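Question thread 4412

I'm putting together a teaching handout and wanted feedback from people who do this every day. The idea is simple: show students a protein as raw sequence, then show them the structure tokens that encode its fold, then repeat with a second protein so they can compare. Below is the first pair exactly as I plan to print it.
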Amino acid sequence: MTAVEDNAIKPDLRDPAVVMRLFRLGSFHQSRLSFMRILTRRMKREAWRFDCPVFDISDNGVGQAVYSAHGPERSYSLVAFAHDLPADQRSDRVIATAWDCTFALFDGVPTAADIARLSQNVPLQEAGRVTGSELSVSRANRSVRLWEHVVSRLAAGSQPDLQQIEAVGYLMRTTAVYGSGKLGAADRGMIAGRAEFAAPFQVEMLSVFLTRAFVRDLVQHMADRRARAAGGQAARLGPLIARRLGVGNSTGLGMAPFLLNHPVLFSNWVAAREIALQRVRGVQTARAAEIATFHDLYARSRISVAKWHSDHPAQRERLAALQADIDRITARLSDVGLAVVQPWDDLYQWGAATLSVEGQEWLVSLLLEPYGDLVDDLADTLPADNTATFRIAGAMTVACLRDVLWDI
């Protein structure tokens, strides 16, 4: 266990008046308590298996595929439909009616009849309907800038240009990932009791995780077919480049009204992060392995931040401030080091007085990294059971409901 002494002075939690400000909340960075990382830790811990029982895609990228994830008790499958979408129909608007790919996350492994049923509904998205056997519905469009570049370069036997990969970062981006009863899919209450879905948004994260695998296979498939038609052989997408490719997200605007309607849930998320920070700040002495982990991830994250870019003036200003903060942290680590009492609290307190808000929150996420044994259990505190407070009174008459709303 980490060296936290019983008689140590426990740092106070940060003041909500400081934390709960939009500018600071918008400066939070991914951490050990991020939803996708909770999912991938579970996959590794439980040795989940993955396979692709169906991949029926034509030379021009049209067809269907199934990607299955097998956990210790249950299996889940992404059912993917690929379409030949004309460029003039490609739109990131939520009101679009056609997409390059559409998906459903199926509870189990689908039969041919399940796939046939989904093929008549999932490509329609809002105009279609799914059932309680589906846990999420989503859609995605190809990157206009990157998709053709990657296909053509691989088909010609070479790797994509790394600068173009880093400028975009994804081959497809979602324009919606729907769950919790949307379009007839299973309601959250139907699956909340499953350990793998207890934490928030695990269904959606699993869908995106499998989507990423499908997209990489699809671009390789289309490059292979193009090369074969030309009498050649396509290159395999290099693993280092493949690791740089994520799944883009259009806007995430739906999260704003969701958070307004789920204040307890949002409070749990922020509280878990704050308690994690408090625990790490209370560590009396950093062990050599913990210091080494911090320095390693600090160096890697510093390289990553150096590659971030934006065309938006306000975001460019924030990135410049973060770069300057990282230089300050580097100098601080060189001058003072971590061989002090409560080193993480010392570093945090210095950062709170010295760095921009963006730099402070970047540092907070890094402080948590060496201490999975202290903070990972807080993932269990993220969910919120709203059933008691938000149960619908089915016996209420319309007249009574009208009176209640009128009083409000």
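The second pair follows. I'd like the answer to focus on this one:
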Amino acid sequence: MRIDNLPWKPEPDYTRLLRALQRKGDPCDVPFLELFADQEVIAYALDEPIVPPDVQMDDRQMLERVVDQKIRFWYHLGYDAFWQGPLVNFHDPHLESEDTADVRKTKRLWVNEKVGIITSMADFDRYRWPDPADVDYYPLEYAARHLPDGMAIIPQIMGTLEHVMWLMGYETFAMAIYEQPELIEAMFSKMRELSIPVARALVQSDRVVALWMGDDMGFKTATMVAPKHLREYVFPIQKEIAAIAHAQGIPFILHSCGNLESIMGDLIDDVKIDAKHSFEDVIQPVESFVAQYGGQVAVIGGVDVDLLARGTEEQIRARTRQILTRCAPGGGYILGSGNTFANYIPLQNFLCMLHEGWRYNHQ
């Protein structure tokens, strides 16, 4: 195992994470949290073979191996909880290319931004939509039975906007808002039909302490579509899902990339998110977001992925210390990357970030 002999010992306590999500955390005991880590880096860190992604959907034993790897990985790194989704097959179309990362995938998949599998009402009618009854919750059920004491699960609920864009292709989707509004309405209606029962099932699962939606809504300078369209189609579904989490007494976390300045008021006051994740320094450094919104929502991550991928050890350590010094005092900050532990981030760089977090907590 390549993560043996770390200077810290696992002491999972999900109540510490919950206090931070409620903005009542101890500024001198900042928890760690990530959206996810690529399976390749998890297997590499554990020095174990990787399970091919296409095998996991059909082979329970292989799926259990993947979940076991996640549990060991996050436990040894000092996390209180980790992100785990159910199995939902959307039959999303993808483009493929060679992966050039050191710890590489067999192939890198890309979303086709121009055209997707649904471009018309005829395509919509032909498409084989996932049935809520067919969603497989076994990964969460298995994880709940095998978690170490003190650890918890934060289940993933599919994004409302991003799945519609993936299925249609971004360009097709953007034009259809004006040219095929009936198709857009049908797409979001289907997403609601699937998402609401899944959300209700997830929040009632064992060892679950929060609900996390990944729904990318922006790019570097603005939202993917006009805020008025998000208010019409996307926020009502997100709001309903957030209410399901709150009715169960757990926080609702939003991961969304991009510049969301024009809609942060909606997300806080209308959707009622409890925590925001995904930050990029060229859009808004995390400490700037904390200064602006930290009194209203908890903040997760913010150590820029580009820095983690290409920076030196001292640069990563210095930036992590800077973020902790500025963000932790309010009690609502949780340390992590700006997005995810992608397979092109060197393991040692990621560990430098965590080591600085540990040193901050034990100074």
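Top answer:
Good format. For the second protein you could add a caption like this: The mean pLDDT is 95. The first helix runs from residue 14 to 21.
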